[in-house]
Amino acid sequence: MVLKDHYYRLSSDLPEERIQAATALLGELQAANATAEWDYALNRLVKGLTTLRQTARFGFSMALTELVRELILKEDYELSIVGFVEKLVSVSQILGGMKGAELRSVLFGRLFGFQALLNSRVLFDTKVSSQEVLDKYVKSLVELAGTKPWLRETVMFTLCQFVAAYLLSDLFDKNGLVHILQCVEDHHLTLTVEGLAVYMTIPQPLRSQTAAKVGSGWKNGDPLSKGNLPNLAVVLKDAEPVDAEEKGKNGQKQKGSWNPQIPFVWDLLVKHFAQADDEEEEDEASNGKKRKKHASPKQKKKAKTEDESIHLKEFWRVAIDETLFAEKASTERKYWGLEIFILFFKQVPASLVEALFTPNLMRCLMNHSSQNNRVLNKLATKVLNTIIEVTKSDVAKVVPTLKCIISEEYGGNWAFDNVTKSKVTDSLVGVLSYIENIDSIPSSRAESLAVDIKNVLIDLFNKTLDKQVEPKDEESKKKSHDNVLKWVLDKLLLLQRSTKRFQFTDNRFIERNFEFLIQHAFFQGKDKTKSVSDNVSHLAQDRLNSFLSGVISQKRKGHSWSLYCVKYIGKLEKSSNLEPRLELTEELSLVRSQALDLLDTIKSHVKDDSASDANYCFELLFSMVILQLLSGEAEAVNVLQELQMCYEDFLTKQEEGLKIQVVLTEIILSFLLKNSLLMKKLSQFVWESLLCAKNHEGKILADEECLELLFDVLKTKENEEGLRDLFEGEDEFEEEDGEESEEESEEEEESDSESDVLDLTAKVEKETTIKLAKALGVPTAESGEVKFDEIDSFEADSDVASDLMDDEEMMAMDDQLARIFKERRDLLSANTTNNKKAQAAQAKQLIMLFKSRVLDLIEAFSKVQPHSPYNLYLLRPLVLLINTTKDKELGVKAHKILKTRVTKAKVGKEDLEAHFDDVEAYKKRFLKEIGWLQQQAGKYSSNQAHGQSCGQCSITIAKSLVGLDESYLKKIVEVYSQTLLEWSTDPKNRIQPALFTFFLNWVSTVREPGISLNRAMAIAAKTVRNSLKSDLRVAAERRGNSDVKVSKFENGVASEPKALHENK
């Protein structure tokens, strides 16, 4: 027996329940195999298609698909395809009294029945179907399409599915296609989007051959033939019939309402254009240079057909750009246009992407994405996000898309991201940084892509430079289009940074970037007509520095990239079309020439393996400072001279005289003072590779004096006074008479500040005088000066006027004068206060930056030399900095370095003997250091990490001393005992008890190396568990038990697992 409840569950809102009901229904029908049940099921399901419930229609049509196939193929049941169609039409007859909703449900029920028959695949079964049956089905389907305009698209979609399946079936016949197209033509559907879809479903050349027998409205029987482009554009608008004759009573009616979903014919069109381009590429690849001189007739016919077909560029211009994106197009048309753009951009190959970007599209896209209140803002944003997502997955589309977005030829703009409030150009330029799996794209492909993106940007730069207009003001540093040129330089830097993860096969990409930047940073054309402005030139220098900072540790043919830049500058100086922007004096030219000669010497020494790292560092320093000299840096001359002395002493290895490590440290600190990432990275690289690296004797170049220079910076006050101390110390190094230079600099600063105050006061006084004169009616000149020669006549008039003023006017005058004097007082006081605050804030920020970079050097030293005896010298400055700094972030950074780096270091005996002759003095010094640290821990500190740091540093020194000499354990215990006594007797002592706890834990490991802190804690936990009550002890013991079993492998075979304590 078949349960009737299954029919009820077929109308469920849950898809899973509908599937279960259909499966159960068909299973029970097959089990019962009764004609009455089959008849009831067929009638019930067919009638159920006309229900008003949409979900019920889904369930009934799904079950009907399987039922129809079962009954038509069933030998003992009389049901044919034609019989089913007639039954379906009779059940879904349109009656006169039907209203809108009822009519809609009846017509859609019939459509679902036709779809169920198509899905059952019995239409193309030669046993039960024939061409006459298919013709009957097609005729009924097309008649249904002509019933109502709102039903047409859905019905014709089913017809397109039928045609696609018919082309692959055993019943396929060209006459059958002719009948299909003739039915479409008879119902005036040929020149509609639905009729176009039917034509597009038939492939060429079968489409033209079939349409020629019908005599359709398309020229050459192909809608995509060039002569059909105007009609094709009108048809795709889906607004009204194309021919005027079709507007009569026999023609199809216009659709009543606009549908935001684009017609399905666009899917067929994009598929056609994508396949057409792929076929062209395959033909070019197969023929290549071996193409025959005389093509065969078949090839000629194919080439002629391709020439007569509409290409995407012209199709897009007429059917999309001039129709949907026209200036006067409605919002609904533009909506369709943006949706169609998304569809095409996802599917067309990269070679056709440029055809999609047109001026009208770009104008619409930028207008609607610029403001949130625009009607199509969300859809425009969706388009932008689609561009980003598609280009990330298909990098071949990056270059044409970027070219169209920033080019005015395609309606783009260099400021596209600013206008649209998006990150489209940034994502396109930096697309290599968004690739999650770098193995998915070969290194050569990534390099080729980077080069192509660079060429697009530089092409925009050169075109903009050609259009540049010289400023009318000769002293102006800015020219027209400077913003575009700066934007290109910024994007080149973004492109460079996106390539960090890839290892390019050659240096072509980086070389071209450096050559481009060097040309515009240091040179200009001799006619100066096609040269960038000074502002752009300075930015090019900054970008060059940024490029160098990214490749500072990379080598080009064994040498630095900065050396390549210096050599290329020398090459451009010989050019007849360029001249340097900065003309060097004879003295500077001589310094540069000497530095270049020395640089050539260093270059030859880099090949020596014994000192290659040191020579490379000197090569890096010399080349970088030469670039600074050419940029106009005043300090570069002194630095070059100091470097020259250092390198000469380094080659001769003189132990007396100039200490090159001290001079190099001072140079590094001078680099850190500059707000430059390049100088920071250069300093760190030279510090790690030269000063912190060991030589063949096992020694490092940096010594206690070098570290003291770093410590002096950390001790500097974090205010203007501290900043002055830093620069005054620098002046003392440069001047012979330090005191005189200091006094002169102070006098100059005071005079400058006094002159600024006087200028400000004079300006405020002048403005106040003008306001008072206007308020009192005193005559003034245009410059604001009072006309004293007219005072006499004014006084005579004012006496009369003052007699006429009443009390209210006099009060108003007093208020006005009071307001003027108040504004004067506020301006004078506010400007002075603001200047002082700004100077103080700037000084503090510079000191904080300087100290932070010095901390980076300290961390690098401890990282490179973890066993150096100088690590213990780092403890006191870091503890003092944690206690004295007013900047929270700086204190946290110092404590982190101390905790993770310095306190992890352990002095090695070999390193100690290599650097210090008196080892005993070293040990005694740091034994006293433990006492000093514990005294610091007992003092008040606003930073909670201060006391903890003192305890950690004490343990670090103790570990190193005991590791060097075990007899020092007793001395260390005595120091801690004395500290413990002071802490016990002095209530003001602020030492944290954890300091002694950490020491006892460490001592326990020294006494019994086999028992660690974790083991001691485990023993203590076990003791506590044993002291608990019985019920609590059982639960605790369960948590404390941990069983480990081990299996031994012998000859590849595992033995039986045994407890860990059983294995010996």
Q: In which order are the strands of the major sheet placed?
A: 1-4
Strand content: under 5%
Number of strands: 8
Sheet of most strands:
2 strands, antiparallel
| Radius of gyration, in angstroms, nearest whole number | 44 Å
Task: Label the structural class.
Answer: mainly alpha
Assign an overall shape.
Answer: extended
Topology:
Blueprint: H1 5-9, H2 15-32, H3 35-48, H4 54-72, H5 81-91, H6 100-119, H7 131-145, H8 149-167, H9 174-186, H10 193-201, H11 206-212, H12 229-237, H13 265-287, H14 297-308, H15 312-321, H16 331-347, H17 359-370, H18 377-393, H19 398-406, H20 416-420, H21 424-429, H22 443-466, H23 482-498, H24 508-522, E1 523-525, H25 534-550, E2 555-556, E3 559-560, H26 561-572, E4 578-580, H27 586-605, H28 612-630, H29 636-652, H30 660-672, H31 677-691, H32 704-715, H33 720-734, H34 738-776, H35 791-804, H36 807-864, H37 875-884, H38 888-900, H39 909-915, H40 919-937, H41 945-964, H42 968-985, H43 994-1007, H44 1013-1026, H45 1030-1040, E5 1045-1046, E6 1049-1050, E7 1053-1054, E8 1058-1059
Antiparallel strand pairs: 1-4, 2-3, 5-8, 6-7
Helix pairs in contact: 2-4, 3-4, 4-6, 5-6, 6-8, 7-8, 7-9, 8-10, 10-13, 12-15, 13-16, 16-18, 17-18, 19-22, 22-23, 23-25, 24-25, 24-26, 25-31, 26-28, 27-28, 27-29, 28-29, 28-31, 29-30, 30-31, 30-32, 31-36, 33-34, 34-36, 36-38, 37-38, 37-41, 38-41, 40-41, 40-42, 41-43
